[in-house]
Design a protein that fits this description.
Low-confidence stretches: 1-14
Strand order of the largest sheet: 1-26-25-24
Strand content: 35-45%
Largest sheet: 4 strands, antiparallel
Helix content: under 10%
Radius of gyration: 20 Å
Distance between the termini: 7 Å
Structural class: mainly beta
Order of helices and strands: EEEEEEEEEEEEEEEEEEEHEEEEEEE
Length: 356
């Protein structure tokens, strides 16, 4: 596949002229109706090591399933409990130096497992920092410590407070070293009944922050109002940004009419966010998932490089989100977007070969 363009960048190009990146499905796991023997209660972390082995965390069964590069189950480790190597609330699975496996449990900390035997090695506790709130996830592993996400819980008594989400470098001792990025938290509205019972709802077409730690050791962060994704080193140095102009997608009348009690939100966004999410591959290219138009069954992904050039585009099912792109493969998950998502979705992992 080859493409060329005139000097002047992507601004003069039509969306249709971007090179088409072909993703061919290799395998999928988790669809019981299709005869799969492995069924996930939920997909809470997905990581791939240098050998192409796939690690999938399940916060329902509280274990980690390990699959070969061909998608065959080759083992499991972990279980529900408080003992070393056990979990209470799996949030993410990551691969670190020398293919050690890291599993973050929001209630028990960060556990490390040996790369080949998957035997428990040690557990790190992460200390709460009152200036940035509770730790919500670990998204990267460095020699100095994990990259952690922090935010404050929303409650009746802090409804009007400035809510934000922070990505930070944390030491192996569990204390915060430095803040790397700070963005507004996702747009939620807290409803309080006459009985003072709180209930959270997402603001329709609300904006949210996204953070991704690249295999090369850089933090990418963006607020999805626009495609303007900052790049930061673990030392806190600003390394630039990945940006692209986009044409806003209007909220349709059908979509607006589907909102339950729209007056409760005050004003509702008239256009959708610039993107749903993004990830960074092993070439430091940013894969940006666009918002779908209406009830379209597929969503567009744009692949951007650090020079703000569109490397290519591809289309994937709307309900699939890519988690890892590494060594010519892309791995994604199909799952409800949140506990507030009413769709009946079967948690599924899908692997693709990437033809670029």
């Amino acid at each position: 596949m080859a493409a060329c363009q005139r000097d002047g960048g992507d601004a003069s190009r039509s969306e249709e002229s971007y090179p088409q990146i072909v993703l061919s499905e290799i395998f999928r796991i988790g669809d019981e109706a299709a005869g799969d023997t492995v069924v996930f209660g939920g997909i809470d972390g997905l990581a791939v090591n240098a050998a192409g082995q796939l690690f999938v965390g399940d916060a329902s069964s509280m274990d980690i399933s390990v699959f070969s590069a061909g998608g065959v189950l080759i083992g499991k480790f972990g279980s529900r409990g408080v003992a070393p190597g056990e979990f209470r609330d799996i949030s993410n699975v990551l691969v670190g130096r020398n293919d050690s496996i890291y599993v973050f449990d929001t209630r028990q900390g960060l556990s490390v497992f040996a790369p080949e035997t998957w035997l428990f090695q040690r557990r790190f506790k992460i200390v709460r920092n009152d200036s940035v709130g509770n730790i919500s996830n670990v998204i990267g592993i460095t020699d100095m410590g994990p990259i952690t996400l922090h935010s404050f819980s929303i409650r009746v008594n802090n409804l009007d407070a400035d809510r934000f989400r922070v990505a930070a470098l944390t030491s192996w001792a569990g204390t915060m070293v430095r803040i790397l990025a700070r963005l507004p938290d996702l747009e939620l509205l807290l409803f309080v009944s006459p009985e003072q019972t709180p209930a959270l709802r997402f603001v329709p077409f609300g904006r949210r922050p996204t953070f991704s730690f690249s295999p090369s050791g850089k933090l990418y962060s963006g607020w999805n109002e626009t495609i303007d994704i900052a790049i930061t080193s673990v030392d806190g140095e600003a390394l630039g940004a990945v940006q692209k102009n986009h044409v806003p997608i209007p909220v349709t009348t059908t979509e607006f009419d589907a909102i339950i009690n729209p007056s409760a939100f005050g004003s509702i966004h008239e256009v959708k966010p610039a993107y749903k999410t993004f990830i960074v591959d092993d070439k430091d290219q940013v894969w940006v998932k666009g918002e779908s138009q209406g009830e379209m069954p597929t969503a567009e992904w744009l692949i951007l490089d650090a020079a703000e050039k569109v490397v290519g585009r591809t289309e994937l099912p709307t309900d699939l989100t890519l988690e890892v792109v590494r060594s010519g493969r892309a791995y994604g998950s199909i799952e409800a977007e949140s506990v507030f998502d009413p769709r009946p979705v079967v948690p599924t992992v899908v692997a693709y070969s990437v033809n670029m």
